[in-house]
């Protein structure tokens, strides 16, 4: 089933709260982008204690763009409304061990890959992950231009692994969604197309309607 996942990339709690209020009750899953300023040239706000103490929270997935994903994963395993944790194959980590840890704690585990990274790095893990998140450009900032290599990669992986759930992040918008659907993407993460719109909620609903 195709799914639009609004992605929140913010620098402070106030903006995070505002984005959540805009989307509250409308989406089954919201992504929180976590950046450490080392793995990517940007930092984002994230506080596990704030997420843990939220009243009537939505379901979240975390997209960890960090050098040491295990450090953050250890702090969120007890948070029930964090359902999925995605980190990068390029990060320094024991990927099979982290996948097993997530599954042991009833979390889905996903791996993300940048357009410039050889997909051979992932092949041994296809059977273990719940999702492969393909980056539409080098990560770090919202609104970056689509790298066509990412679409070609999606098509090839979908042909080779038709049961593997493919997500796509960066440059997911009205223009690219039809092409991404044809490439085999079923989870569409969108940040700037939604939150830079005049009416973010209406834009998010519009993008979601394009998936049906």
Describe the overall structure.
With 212 residues, the protein is of the alpha/beta class. It has one domain (3-209): TIM Barrel (Alpha-Beta Barrel), CATH 3.20.20.70. The protein has helices at 13-23, 48-52, 69-76, 95-104, 148-160, 177-182, 192-195, 200-209, and strands at residues 3-8, 30-35, 60-65, 82-88, 108-113, 131-135, 166-169, 187-190. It has an eight-stranded parallel beta barrel with strand order 1-2-3-4-5-6-7-8, surrounded by five helices. Helix 5 links the parallel strand 6 and strand 7. The longest helix has 13 residues, at 148-160. The model has no long low-confidence stretch (mean pLDDT 95).
Provide the CATH superfamily: Aldolase class I
Shape: globular
> For the CA atoms, what is the radius of gyration?
16 Å
Structural domain tally: 1
CATH level-two architecture: Alpha-Beta Barrel
> How many H/I helices?
8
CATH topology: TIM Barrel
> Can you give the mean pLDDT?
95
Proportion in helices: 25-40%
Ranges where pLDDT stays below 50 over 5 or more residues in a row are none
SSE series? EHEHEHEHEEHEHEHH
In CATH, what is the class? Alpha Beta
The share of residues in extended strands comes to 15-25%
* Distance N to C terminus: 9 Å
The total beta strand count reads 8
Largest beta sheet: strand ordering: 1-2-3-4-5-6-7-8
């Amino acid at each position: 089933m195709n799914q639009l996942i609004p992605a929140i990339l913010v620098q402070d709690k106030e903006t995070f709260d505002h984005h959540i209020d805009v989307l509250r009750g409308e989406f089954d899953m919201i992504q929180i982008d976590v950046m450490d300023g080392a793995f990517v040239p940007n930092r984002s706000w994230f506080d596990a204690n704030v997420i843990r103490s939220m009243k009537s929270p939505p379901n979240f997935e975390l997209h960890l763009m960090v050098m040491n994903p295990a450090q953050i994963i250890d702090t969120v395993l007890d948070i029930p409304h964090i359902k999925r944790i995605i980190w990068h194959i390029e990060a320094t980590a024991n990927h099979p061990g982290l996948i097993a840890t997530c599954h042991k704690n009833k979390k889905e585990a996903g791996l993300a890959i940048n357009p410039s990274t050889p997909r051979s790095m992932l092949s041994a893990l296809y059977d273990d992950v719940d999702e492969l998140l393909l980056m539409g450009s080098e990560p770090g900032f919202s609104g970056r231009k689509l790298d066509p290599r990412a679409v070609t990669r999606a098509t090839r992986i979908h042909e080779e692994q038709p049961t593997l759930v493919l997500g796509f992040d960066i440059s997911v918008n009205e223009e690219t969604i039809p092409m991404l659907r044809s490439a085999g993407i079923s989870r569409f993460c969108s940040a700037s197309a939604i939150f830079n719109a005049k009416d973010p909620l209406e834009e998010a609903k519009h993008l979601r309607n394009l998936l049906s």
